[in-house]
Amino acid sequence: MQSFLAMKNVRANLFALYRQTGVNVKEIQKKWPRIYVCHTYYHVYIAFLKELKLPKEQQGSAALVLSSMSNDFEELKSRVEATGLFREVIEFDEKREDFFPELARWRKGGGGFLGNLYCRIRFTRRYAELEAPYVPVDFREYEDIYVFCDSDPIGYYLNQNRIYYHAVEDGLNCLKNFDAARYDNRGHFKLKAFLSRKLNLIFVQNGYGKYCLDMEVNDISAIRYPCPRYIEAPRKELVDRLTEEDRELILRAFIRDMEELEKQLYESGDEDKILILTDPLCTLDVRERIFRDIIKMYEPEGKIFLKPHPRDVLDYRKLFSEYPQFDAKVPMEMLQFFPGVRFRKVVGVFTEIKDLPFADETVFLGADFMDAYEDPLVHRQNEQI
Question: Which pTM does this prediction carry?
């Protein structure tokens, strides 16, 4: 009884403080300022840029979560910890929906619109419940939660548990080529967005979740259907403000073999260099044909370098062993931090490559190029919205 009365007095004092000062009691009780949930190396890179933008006295207090759902981060955790930029680095064994067999019946849907809607409501709620045991932190202990790619299970979990968060775009200008929220919910999109944003009955990603405060994107003007919650945060501005010390810190975290990378970058001297960025496209055999064709197109213009995508599982070192290749686990953006490194041309299929600081020219092949390799319906998603 005495402990109960003591707790009651503490609560009364807190609310009295709120009445006197206007300070939110819930904010007082929060323990840590920021946490970032990352699914790719690029996400971690952006988290670094955001933290390095803050005053020195605020750095080192945020937590970083590395989800293993779509990436093997290997030794990144220990290298990030060694920088001291984050208070804690947490590994998250995030589970895809196919890990839970019981979700298949709800994903299958029902008869007609109402039947499908009922199944989706059940899927949304049950998925969040099943994911909960694998969530490694109590997100309620953090003031600001930044989630890259909230279409992943963490988005369902946060919304169903009524935890507010900030969404961050999955890749640079990724909504320009693939507006996943509108594509996944084509047909009655406004109704589905309402059911998500206002009622939290279903979940629609990329700014349409009820507990999504806002979504940070690089360039709103590049998005055909902007969401009211999109806020613009140009990545170039974050990079331009980096000090030399900041750049060195980023390189220590992301480069596994600095000596090998510098050797690749500088040994070719003044020879024209063509950098080809791969993407996890099509089946492996078609993907091999795509990049052999691209190499054939650009090889007459200079020495070819390959930068495999982190999620591209094609064995380029075996199949394309005659060409220098950068570490797939190193974000392409790291190349801008090496002085004097220039590529005559950087070529990508769907990777956003506009205004790369280390490229004299960029070539974005895009959907027209891919039409020759697969059904256009597969990669022309935005045209189907």
Answer: 0.89
